[in-house]
Write a structure and sequence with these properties.
α1 packs across α6 and α3 packs antiparallel against α4. The protein has three domains: about 130 residues, 3-Layer(aba) Sandwich (Rossmann fold), CATH 3.40.50; about 60 residues, SH3 type barrels; about 90 residues, Translation factors (Elongation Factor Tu (Ef-tu), domain 3, Beta Barrel). The chain is built from eight helices and 19 strands. It is an alpha+beta fold and about 375 residues long.
Amino acid sequence: MSGGVDSAVAAARAVDAGHEVVGVHLALSRMPGTLRTGSRGCCTIEDSMDAQRAANLIGIPYYVWDFSERFKLDVVDDFIAEYRAGRTPNPCMRCNEKIKFAALLEKALDLGFDAVVTGHYATIVTSPEGDRELHRASAWAKDQSYVLGVLTAEQLAHSMFPLGATPSKAEVRAEAGERGFTVANKPDSHDICFIPDGDTKGWLGERVGTETGQVLDRDGAVVGSHEGAHAFTVGQRKGLHLGVPAPDGRPRFVLEVRPKDNTVVVGPKEALAIGEIAGSRFTWAGRAPEVGVAPIPCDVQIRAHADPVPAALTLVDGELVVHPETPLDGVAPGQTAVLYSGTRVLGQFTIDRTVSAVPVGAAASA
């Protein structure tokens, strides 16, 4: 129970369904803030108190479990390491993978519980063969199956998502109001919970450090300078402070971050089009598809709120390779690609490399 409306209603519905339910709030910070900053953050003392009030109304036991050390190691430190390596990580994916459906689930099973129930908008379907499959929620506008793409078959066997079939978030809020939950109109959390002020650049600068480096164009010419490559991400346009304008006068975007030599590569928007993504760190959400060197059809989604794109999937030398039917826009190594077959989540992989759909020199003449 995060202290939000979704987990409160999910807990109440689990009780209504006849389950024996215990509310658990995760303490993920050794120094939690007292109050939320608008809709930023989700691990404050205020959130813990909101969760306890909801548990009391439902009539279930309530506990706070301290996973702050595990969260620091598996999520925060990983976030810093990924940026140091020039990649763009997704900490929410890592939290689901390492904390909510690993550390929390492991402890729950050890204590004799059967499943972890959350307020995520996704559904679990049992196939005719008896396999549990992860599917999109009924309302795609609120669908959260992307951030659950890291779940394995074993984790799906011990997971429940009571909100998956709910048509809209408005309906969940209305139900929360009818149940008397004070969080009925509480804003949704967003951004990175451990950077509540939203200043990711400043937060990283304190931990990674700053060092002057060069900004290059696609031909290797120096067009500017910067104070640390970690502050940039692929697709970024603002804050480049380039000293040399593009020959055609058009805006330039970050195309690549090279942490080894502390350089940033910029170019035209067309060069952000990606025709191939690949990665060797992958998992399957349920039964693994029969994928090999012969391509199989799928849909690929590279951000939580992006549209799925039809693609061809292969597995070559231990690396998943995806060729989208239409180029993907502004993909950065470190992002998570979630694979779908219709509404079903097949699995996910961390993007290790990308191949531009526009060769060097082609964008300038386009």
